[in-house]
Specification:
Rossmann fold, about 35% helix, 7-stranded mixed β-sheet, GART, binds glycinamide ribonucleotide, purine biosynthesis, 6 helices, Formyl_transf_N, alpha/beta, transferase, Formyl_transf_N_sf, about 20% strand, about 190 residues
Length: about 190
């Protein structure tokens, strides 16, 4: 049965695009019901519109609390019968309201080999540290910052002194790893927890 998902994103949305393309090419048995963004001007909005996928944009500071905007998001997710929440460059911590509504049904991708370099600009952190190998992690979301049980990881050799080349390798790997991990997860081919 096709899995109904929502993509949460705050930026360019290249992972969103890779997931939608994998769906269209029959590599991922899923359907994106809605894209949720906290950045109404983000490029992901344009990409979603190009595919004819509904977008829910919100501005966090227009709500009294995280619980308030997350409750509104939950209403939208239920309207679209969303089963899994897929974070793809969504730069906000998920709060208890959404975590309990989608318990063990929220997944994130992060551009490092966690637990190394959590948080913002993981690629910059890795380069700054001088590591020779970095990578990509797909993991379940809990209340922490890029914590939660790891589903898959893959490594990338750093291109020394060349941030954009390193970034390009990481993004290409993300697109591949995210779609293949989601397919295994939805087909119950990977165990949920360690
Ligand atoms: C991706 O590299 C993703 O791993 C990262 O944001 C980028 C979004 O790119 N996420 C995090 O850093 C989460 N902590 P995209 O908008 O092109 O998909």
């Amino acid at each position: 049965m096709t899995t109904k998902i929502a993509i949460f994103a705050s930026g360019s949305g290249s992972n969103f695009q890779a997931i939608q393309t994998a769906i269209e090419n029959g590599k991922l048995d899923a359907e994106i019901g809605v894209v949720v963004t906290d950045k109404p001007d983000a490029y992901v909005v344009k990409r979603a519109e190009n595919f004819g996928i509904p977008v829910f944009s919100f501005v966090a500071k227009q709500y009294e609390s995280k619980a308030d905007y997350e409750q509104e998001i939950i209403n939208i997710l239920k309207e679209h019968e969303v089963q899994w929440v897929i974070l793809a460059g969504y730069m906000r911590l998920i709060g208890n309201t959404l975590l309990s509504a989608y318990s063990n049904r929220i997944v994130n991708i992060h551009p490092s080999l966690l637990p190394a370099f959590p948080g913002k600009d993981a690629i910059g952190q890795a380069l700054e540290h001088g590591v020779k190998v970095t990578g990509v992690t797909v993991h379940f979301v809990d209340e922490g910052l890029d914590t939660g049980p790891i589903l898959s990881q893959a490594a990338v050799d750093v291109v020394e002194g060349n941030r954009s080349a390193t970034e390009a390798k990481i993004h290409a790997l993300e697109h591949e790893l995210y779609t293949s991990t989601l397919q295994k997860l939805f087909k119950k081919e990977i165990k949920l927890f360690h």
